[in-house]
Design brief:
By secondary structure, the chain is mostly beta strands. It has three helices and 30 strands. This is Bacterial Ig-like domain-containing protein.
């Protein structure tokens, strides 16, 4: 049975190999390199320790009936050499003198790591036990490596770095804020020396080990409970040197949904109704809705099941969002998502009425009959100047304004039947009276047709004192007297 002995650098970029009849008992290996053994007939490739282990199993089976007892598995001596040239020179000299079977030993040495990568053997400082020479030997048995000539590696590797929660598991507001709502299969990543064994700790508790790949990257999959977790990692190189712990990496598993948003309100500047708190408006765009949520939470507003947009609350929890709404009645709710990604219950609805339809043009107003003092009570002629009643009908509940020649002189609210009566004061003269109506959303109608009112001076205002200078002639027959004893006034238009 022929094999191909292959020596590979740690980064996999340099390979030397040779076909041999069997595995040599001594191998010269550049520091950090690893060995693969390929069965030339089957093409199956195994790590050196696994190859030896399987050969040992076969050897035990072959010697099972041996009265002298089983023969121990093979012992392979690895001699560290400082450069690849020496390894290549050695490989050139290895050839036909290799025995059909490697040397055997009565001692059996396990690999320093089990199948899970956990250390199962100590290092006494003299014998160099290396699990597969930078990868490939985890779980393999029967490998004794001795550093016969080369210098011992006593330099610890650099501490692992860059511990982080995988972006796909980070459900927080950012992909790197280390906050998540997940508890299972969370991946922690980092970097260490290529091929190093990396052990992850939470506090003093070991969470497992893994091996850094040829580029130094490693990852752990974990299940975690809700709460804050703080991790460190320690690397062990091929020589068994242990690094200092990494910097602490903290992450937060948050499973608690946030409280529902409160205090939803339409901004008073956009509330054009009869009051600034009735949530009635004539506007359809730029409507500002405010409310309260958790600090820095994401808030999404909905009109029924339709999203109106998303905003982030401030540090004080306050948020505002400008939305557009079509005419009609709307039930606006808010759904809060906290920084971990937990979604809360929908808020209580805010009812907003959008009314963009102006009231109908009011009919021609009228002067109340009791105030119409002209020749008829419909000629809109009066001698009164105060408390003149203007009346008519508009949309029920509408706000009515009365204008005199374009100047507002009075207002009132129509009743449930739409009737209104508003008292105004007018000066003597001609007046053009118009009215217009506003509905509860603030929509304003066009002006009514004008009502012409004439205000004449009253009788009292026409009265004036009469006086004259009389010259007494002293003749009784001329009927002229300096003191006639007659003084008074008569009403305008009176006779007798």
């Amino acid at each position: 049975m022929a094999i191909i002995l292959r020596i590979i650098s740690a980064d996999g970029r340099r390979v030397i190999e040779k076909t041999l009849p069997a595995l040599p008992a001594n191998i010269k290996l550049p520091v950090g390199a690893r060995v693969e053994v390929e069965d030339k007939d089957s093409g199956v490739v195994k790590s050196l320790p696994r190859y030896i282990n399987e050969m040992s199993d076969e050897a035990y089976e072959e010697k099972a009936d041996d009265t002298d007892g089983p023969v121990g598995p093979p012992e392979v001596t690895i001699e560290s050499v400082p450069d690849w040239g020496m390894a290549e020179a050695w490989l050139e000299t290895v050839g036909q003198d290799v025995e059909a079977e490697p040397a055997r030993s009565t001692r059996y040495y396990d690999s320093p790591y089990d199948d899970e990568g956990t250390s199962v053997m100590g290092f006494d400082g003299n014998t160099l036990l290396i699990g597969g020479l930078v990868g490939g030997a985890i779980g393999a048995g029967a490998l004794l490596l001795t550093d016969s000539d080369g210098p011992s590696d006593t330099v610890p590797p650099v501490a692992p770095s860059g511990l982080a929660l995988a972006a796909e598991d980070d459900t927080g507001a950012e992909d790197d804020d280390s906050i998540t709502t997940q508890t299972e299969d969370l991946t922690i990543t980092g970097t260490a020396e290529a091929g190093a064994r990396v052990e992850l700790f939470e506090g003093e508790e070991s969470l497992g080990t893994t091996t850094a790949d040829e580029t130094g990257n490693f990852s752990f999959d974990l299940d975690l409970d809700e709460g804050v977790h703080r991790f460190t990692a320690v690397a062990t190189d091929a020589a068994g040197n242990v690094s200092a712990p990494s910097a602490v990496f903290a992450m937060f598993v948050d499973l608690t949904p946030p409280a529902a948003a409160t205090n939803l309100d339409l901004a008073s500047a956009d509330d054009t109704g009869a009051s600034q708190t009735d949530n009635i408006t004539s506007r359809t765009t730029g409507l500002t809705i405010s409310g309260s949520a958790g600090a820095n939470a994401s808030v999404e507003l909905f009109d029924g099941e339709t999203s109106l947009g998303t905003v982030t609350a401030g540090a004080d929890g306050r948020f505002t969002l400008d939305v557009s709404l079509a005419p009609g009645v709307h039930q606006v709710t808010a759904v809060v998502t906290d920084v971990a990604g937990n979604e809360g219950e929908a808020s209580a609805p805010l009812t907003i009425t959008v009314d963009t339809t102006a009231p109908a043009v009011p009919p021609l107003p009228d002067l109340a009959a009791e105030d119409d003092t002209g020749s008829s009570n419909t000629d809109n002629i009066t001698l009164q100047t105060e408390d003149l009643t203007i009346q008519g009908t508009v949309e029920p509940g509408a706000f009515v304004q009365v204008f005199d020649n374009g100047t507002a002189v009075g207002n009132g609210v129509a009743g449930l039947n739409g009737a209104y009566s508003i008292d105004i004061d007018l000066d003597v003269g001609d007046h053009t009276i118009t009215v217009r109506a506003s509905d509860e959303a603030g929509n304003i109608s066009a002006f009514s047709q004008p009502l012409l009112i004439q205000v004449f001076p009253s009788a009292a205002s026409m009265m004036a004192p009469q006086s004259a200078t009389v010259v007494d002639t002293s003749f009784s027959a001329d009927l002229i007297d300096s003191d006639p004893g007659l003084d008074g006034a008569a009403a305008f238009g009176s006779f007798g």
